[in-house]
Design a protein that fits this description.
alpha+beta, D-amino Acid Aminotransferase, Chain A, domain 1, 2 domains, 9-stranded mixed beta sheet, 15 strands, binds 4'-deoxy-4'-aminopyridoxal-5'-phosphate, Class-IV_PLP-Dep_Aminotrnsfr, Probable branched-chain-amino-acid aminotransferase, BCAT-like_N, EC 2.6.1.42, amino-acid biosynthesis
């Protein structure tokens, strides 16, 4: 079955879908994106994803190409047309097409909208979660506005590649004060030996993950002790457990950091429980 993409008002076969070579998304990474989990054919936590999308657009002064409710309809339709039951839906909005010039285009350029969806075999995630993933650390080298979900991801691309080449699954950035900020495509967490779940506050250095925010609700409801503070790679190496969160990974246990085994070297009970319980606290639409 061929895959279908939504591109600027049309549902097209992916093989024919294209954007203009003077799209500012292509030339300047002048755009934003969202990734939502698809589970049982439903979209997970759409209201929070749409709220973050709106915030990212606002921060970059990119106009909303259509009402958020219409964007939601398009995303559902792309999922439906691609018959995705388990996977992800990707939405990208760029500032639009204009003659190449760094400053914003004069006049009213229409933002470009692209939506794709793809199936991810849930067994693959389950397999990774049963084994646990390894992370490496890399120096933080991104701009300070990582709170904006921008398509400018070159440092993240290089960090993920460094992880792969080191036989790891994810790279955690470490800031100039020696604290972990987040992963190249996920938020970073540890569980202390006292059983406290710890993650960095979202006021600086991280993208405010939707999975992170839903998990905070879950921790409260499950009465699991939680601390929002920064931690170092050394603390992570000595922690009982570690894990990462992202819409595409939910809760993924981490069993090693820079070659140091974390806890027992197996996925920890807290991470596995949170992974198992997560969708009780998620919103489906
Ligand atoms: N940080 C970064 C840098 C990311 O790319 C992602 C995934 N998009 C996350 C955190 C996790 O965010 P979410 O839970 O919304 O997927």
């Amino acid at each position: 079955m061929s895959r279908i993409a939504y591109v600027n008002g049309r549902y097209q076969d992916m093989r024919d879908a294209s954007v203009n070579i003077e799209d500012r998304g292509y030339q300047f990474a002048d755009g934003i994106y969202e990734v939502c989990e698809v589970r049982g054919g439903k979209l997970v936590d759409m209201p929070r994803h749409l709220a973050r999308l709106q915030r990212s657009l606002g921060e970059l002064r990119i106009a909303e190409p259509m009402p958020l409710s219409a964007l939601s309809v398009v995303m559902h339709e792309v999922v439906r047309r691609n018959r995705v039951q388990f996977g992800i839906v990707y939405l990208q909005i760029s500032r639009g097409v204009a003659r190449r010039d760094h400053g914003f285009p004069a006049g009213s350029v229409k933002p470009s909208v692209v939506v794709t969806a793809r199936t991810i075999n849930p067994a693959k995630g389950a397999e990774n979660a049963a084994r646990g993933i390894k992370v490496i650390t890399v120096p933080e080298n991104r701009w300070p506005r990582v709170d904006i979900k921008s398509t400018a991801l070159l440092p993240n691309v290089l960090a993920k590649q460094a992880a792969r080449e080191a036989g790891a699954y994810e790279a955690w950035y470490v800031d100039s004060d020696g604290f972990v900020t987040e992963g190249s495509s996920s938020n970073a967490w540890i569980v202390t030996k006292e059983g406290r779940v710890v993650t960095r506050p979202d006021k600086s250095g991280i993208l405010s993950g939707i999975t992170r925010s839903v998990l905070k609700d879950a921790l409260e409801a499950l009465q699991i002790r939680f601390e929002e503070r920064a931690f170092t790679p050394e603390e992570a190496a000595g922690a009982a457990e570690a894990f990462v969160t992202a819409a595409s990974m939910i809760v993924m246990p981490v069993v090693a950091i820079d070659g140091h085994t974390i806890g027992s070297g197996k996925p920890g009970p807290v991470a596995l429980r949170l992974r198992e319980q997560f969708h009780r606290f998620a919103a489906f639409s």
